[in-house]
Amino acid sequence: MNARGSLTVVGLGPGNPQWLTPAASAALAAASDLVGYRAYLDRVPATLGQQRHGFDNRSELDRARLALDMASQGRRVVIASGGDPGVFAMAAAVFEAVELGPPGWRRLDIRVEPGVTAVLAAAARVGAPLGNDFCAISLSDNLKPWTVIAQRLRAALAADFVIALYNPASAARPTRLAEALGIAAEMRRPDTPVIFARAVGRPDESVLVEDLAAARSAVADMATIIVIGATTTRRIARGGGIIPYVYTPRGIVTRC
Amino acid sequence: MNARGSLTVVGLGPGNPQWLTPAASAALAAASDLVGYRAYLDRVPATLGQQRHGFDNRSELDRARLALDMASQGRRVVIASGGDPGVFAMAAAVFEAVELGPPGWRRLDIRVEPGVTAVLAAAARVGAPLGNDFCAISLSDNLKPWTVIAQRLRAALAADFVIALYNPASAARPTRLAEALGIAAEMRRPDTPVIFARAVGRPDESVLVEDLAAARSAVADMATIIVIGATTTRRIARGGGIIPYVYTPRGIVTRC
């Protein structure tokens, strides 16, 4: 056990073990204590003698504080986080806990192990929709007001970013995605491609490409990433009932 | 050799082999032909009997067309791309070539293998600066006019996104980064943290955190990612000459 104690926040990637980096695998295997949302811990192979501390999908700050407390006792703690830990996942909660916590926590060896964040896997499934400037917005409004989310959406639409939406739906806010797509429909053409990518890399994966005009009624849950195309985003039909390729050209040049 | 032919665009991650996913490694090893920028090909372990086709850092469409042409001859082609292939890398060029190319290219088995894009590794090195809504903008203006880039920057600043800048500098446009940071300085506080992360994961890695007011004179090259904090982005001093942690809280709540 490291006398100083350490905490590593590890990105598990979007769910397929083939997308877990060797660095992340090594950090997970070397942990004395593994902390995380239970569904994430279930993805991690067992290591002899390793303690596991499962949590539900809320209580991120509690998870972070338990992990920091164990690290300050000299343990080698890993927090398992979905996708990339820095993108709408556990890393920000850890540093928030550090800032608000005892000064000793600042002297811990705290690291972040990056991972493939969900939108990259979602984009890869259909082509290259993020091929030009893009933004990522979390629709979760339990930590920020909806007015801020709506303002960011409008700004991103006006400046013609491709827009990735994380955390699109939950029981507490079932209408937020429809509201967001409604804002998009005010500012983008009805045939703008919208990608619904659910559970990419897992056995229950599903990927759809819809017209924006039809997208409001599509079903999304917290495992779904939505990508709204820019005005330059294009579809390439493939026929045979296969979903089209979707890509956003690197350049802004009129081509016919 | 697959009679149908295939093309996989593979993300190598930011440069450290420990960040290359097992899926990407497997695709690289299974290729009959490997196409890419020479510096990327140099990172890929040799596979017996594999043909390599190295290019310079321009000519993305030529690279894509060579790869598609070989795939259409039944070869199992892999394009090696930096970071994630869908983020300012080779995937968009491939689909652009498909759309403009012969109809037969649409029937090829074309896949994208996601990777850890550079900004995720850069963010991980300092904490969690992407902890809230963020955008990614390429400063490369050989494919889009500077007016578009400047408009996107202003929109992202006004809506308080964290902003990641890719491709910040080249011999052909040495002043673009200073211009971008100048726009940021009009709209963000002088002490806004700006991260300069160069060659993260490689032996020549360097990571700096600067105040926005001082950032304009910092040195950046095409291997550098810049992250401009949002108004909510915070620094946690650690002392001892170590760079501070930088994170953006998940919530928008006034805390003191």
Main β-sheet description of chain A? 5 strands, parallel
Overall mean pLDDT score of chain A?
92
Radius of gyration of chain A: 20 Å
| Structural category of chain A | alpha/beta
Description:
Two copies of one chain form a homodimer. The first copy, chain A, has helices spanning 22-30, 38-41, 60-72, 90-100, 118-126, 146-158, 176-187, 212-215; strands at residues 6-11, 33-37, 51-55, 76-81, 109-113, 127-128, 134-138, 162-166, 193-198, 206-211, 224-228, 234-236, 245-247. With 256 residues, chain A is of the alpha/beta class. Chain A has a five-stranded parallel β-sheet with strand order 3-2-4-1-5, with helices on both faces. In chain A, strand 9 and strand 10 form a beta hairpin. The mean pLDDT of chain A is 92. At the A-B interface, helix 1, helix 4, strand 5, helix 5 and strand 6 of A face helix 1, helix 4, strand 5, helix 5 and strand 6 of B.
Q: Which helices and strands occur, and which strands form pairs?
A:
The structure is a homodimer of 256-residue chains.
Chain A: E1 6-11, H1 22-30, E2 33-37, H2 38-41, E3 51-55, H3 60-72, E4 76-81, H4 90-100, E5 109-113, H5 118-126, E6 127-128, E7 134-138, H6 146-158, E8 162-166, H7 176-187, E9 193-198, E10 206-211, H8 212-215, E11 224-228, E12 234-236, E13 245-247
